[in-house]
Amino acid sequence: MHFLPPPQYAGSCFPVPLSPSLQGLLLPYAKGIQTEGDFGTVISQVFKGADFEIFKHHFFISKEISLFAYSNKPILTMNFMLRGSPIARVPGMGELQLTQETYQFFYVPSKRIEMWFPKGNFETMNIVLTPAYIERFAKRHKGLNKLIACVTKASDQLFLHERGTITPLFRRLVEEMVPNYENRATTEFKAQTVIKKIFISFIMNHYHKGQFQVGTIEKLEMVKEYIDSNLDNQLSVSAIAEFFHCSVPTLQRQFTEHFGQPIHEYFLEKRMERGMMLLLENNYSIGQISDLLGYKNPSSFIGAFNRSFGFPPAHFMRHRQSYDEK
To answer: Which of the following CATH numbers is that of domain 210-326: 3.40.50.300, 1.10.10.60, 3.30.1330.80, 1.10.1740.10?
Structure first.
């Protein structure tokens, strides 16, 4: 998603090298551009992953102006207004204020959407997800099918699916979105993990808030999704139960009965599976993998790996080709 000036500014807006004073706004490994005009400055940047894109924009507006949000293809995006409150002027919908500290989940067609900015500073982040990514969740959360339908029909109308307030959890996750790791592959993996956490939190807030009313099996599948997206954290059963608004004994009993193993065993198993996959990729050191999986130090990861598989990660790395062929 990009922002274009109105036609009367087309000849007076120019991309320029990013000012040294603004370098700190760039996301790690993101492609950024600075645009200058007599209305102010816009910093646009994008970080692309396998099934997502993260767009972040900073606007320093010296006089009010209408800019045009544009994508060269229809997109499904979660918009987070981190600073400022511009107004979208949408044919058929009228004026839609994007209030500071709120988020919106949109289907955005491939057309220009007018955005009015008063004088001031603004910051927004958009997480663009592929239809295939959302379809994986729509199988269990039918409310998402409205978004998929917009893509299928190639609708030319903006569709506001849901909106809400940026909670402290959302704010923390957004700030963690693109951490600065020493290589791009590790950064993308972490960003993908955070996006999944945000998406599951969105589902909980809008479809299952307060208590479970969707059946035990679907509840347990959501718990499983939550664990899978938090392999980099030190999860406890009590923290999971609190997140899903249920008691620890009930959650432990139902999870074990349905999946055949206790929560803590499943969590460790998935962590070790992920660790083995990262070792097979041969792109990470044991210390990096330990960090990616949320261990406090490499020795904790080495011990857990050894107990799970009967040999340490270093042994597995030396013989990974034979393991990969099994």
So the answer is: 1.10.10.60
* HEC-encoded secondary structure of the chain: CEEECCHHHHHHCEEECCCHHHHHHCCCCCEEEEEEECCEEEEEEEEECCCEEEEEEEEEECCCEEEEEECCCCEEEEEEEEECCCEEEECCCEEEECCCCEEEEEEECCCCEEEEECCEEEEEEEEEECHHHHHHHHCCCHHHHHHHHHHHHCCCCCEEEEEEECCHHHHHHHHCCCCCCCCHHHHHHHHHHHHHHHHHHHHHHHHCCCCCCCCHHHHHHHHHHHHHCCCCCCCCHHHHHHHCCCCHHHHHHHHHHHHCCCHHHHHHHHHHHHHHHHHHHCCCCHHHHHHHCCCCCHHHHHHHHHHHHCCCHHHHHHCHHHHHHC
Q: Is the entire prediction scored with pTM above 0.85?
A: no
Tens of pLDDT, residue by residue over 152-211, are 888 888 998 999 999 887 888 888 777 666 677 778 877 887 888 888 778 877 776 544
